[in-house]
């Protein structure tokens, strides 16, 4: 219904952005909304997808059209809803996802929160041969899970997660902040735990 929305970016939070178009504020749920922070109070164009079901109507937005297309394809996979699809798009580049599908790389796909082996196999079954055109697509600011973990030292990240679990937080709560935690440059477990606590207490 809406191919894209272009207007003044009025609000950015952890889950969605608000774009003003001729006095109407559109609440748009995005993967990694904070990536738009530098455009606050400026003109912004996002590619959008209007999700409609009997009990819900939500507008999703993406920086790149390929991300929107990936989101739409994921919604066609049995067992993947908009929340899971948005989480996946927020944590991978389209070319890396396409490569994982074409190579049937279950290990890569099961790194996404909420994706087990059964769902990973279903994604491969439903999408193989349908996403290979993205294997050469490059975007400017989306990093794969593997890149993020390597940059921050996988061992430090795992220790930080264990520390947060010991403090009483659930795995679900920690998974929600996982992408931001992995993207945080930290030289020690303590630093990463402190940053994790800041995210969890927001």
TrEMBL record:
InterPro entries: DNA_helicase_Holl-junc_RuvA_I, Hlx-hairpin-Hlx_DNA-bd_motif, NA-bd_OB-fold, RuvA, RuvA_2-like, RuvA_C, RuvA_C_sf. It is found in: Cytoplasm. Pfam families: HHH_5, RuvA_C, RuvA_N. Keywords: Cytoplasm, DNA damage, DNA recombination, DNA repair, DNA-binding. Its main location: cytoplasm. Residues 149-202 are annotated as: Domain III. Residues 72-91, 107-126 form the Helix-hairpin-helix DNA-binding motif class domain. The keyword DNA damage applies. Has three domains with a flexible linker between the domains II and III and assumes an 'L' shape. Domain III is highly mobile and contacts RuvB. The RuvA-RuvB-RuvC complex processes Holliday junction (HJ) DNA during genetic recombination and DNA repair, while the RuvA-RuvB complex plays an important role in the rescue of blocked DNA replication forks via replication fork reversal (RFR). RuvA specifically binds to HJ cruciform DNA, conferring on it an open structure. The RuvB hexamer acts as an ATP-dependent pump, pulling dsDNA into and through the RuvAB complex. HJ branch migration allows RuvC to scan DNA until it finds its consensus sequence, where it cleaves and resolves the cruciform DNA. Belongs to the RuvA family. NCBIfam families: ruvA. Homotetramer. Forms an RuvA(8)-RuvB(12)-Holliday junction (HJ) complex. HJ DNA is sandwiched between 2 RuvA tetramers; dsDNA enters through RuvA and exits via RuvB. An RuvB hexamer assembles on each DNA strand where it exits the tetramer. Each RuvB hexamer is contacted by two RuvA subunits (via domain III) on 2 adjacent RuvB subunits; this complex drives branch migration. In the full resolvosome a probable DNA-RuvA(4)-RuvB(12)-RuvC(2) complex forms which resolves the HJ. This is Holliday junction branch migration complex subunit RuvA. It comes from Alkalibacillus silvisoli. The gene is ruvA.
């Amino acid at each position: 219904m809406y191919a894209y929305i272009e207007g003044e970016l009025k609000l950015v939070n952890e889950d969605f952005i608000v774009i003003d178009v001729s006095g109407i504020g559109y609440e748009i749920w995005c993967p990694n909304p904070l990536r738009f922070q530098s455009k606050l109070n400026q003109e912004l164009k996002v590619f959008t997808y209007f999700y409609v079901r009997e009990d819900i109507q939500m507008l999703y937005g993406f920086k790149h059209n390929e991300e929107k297309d990936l989101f739409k394809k994921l919604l066609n996979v049995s067992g993947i809803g908009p929340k899971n699809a948005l989480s996946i798009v927020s944590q991978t580049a389209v070319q890396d996802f396409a490569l994982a599908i074409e190579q049937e790389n279950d290990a890569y796909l099961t790194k996404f929160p909420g994706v087990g082996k059964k769902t990973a196999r279903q994604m491969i079954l439903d999408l193989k041969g349908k996403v290979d055109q993205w294997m050469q697509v490059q975007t400017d600011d989306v990093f794969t899970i593997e890149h993020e973990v390597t940059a921050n030292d996988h061992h430090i990240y795992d220790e930080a997660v264990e520390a947060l679990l010991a403090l009483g937080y659930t795995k679900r709560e920690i998974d929600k902040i996982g992408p931001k935690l992995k993207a945080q440059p930290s030289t020690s477990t303590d630093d990463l735990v402190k940053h994790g606590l800041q995210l969890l207490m927001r």
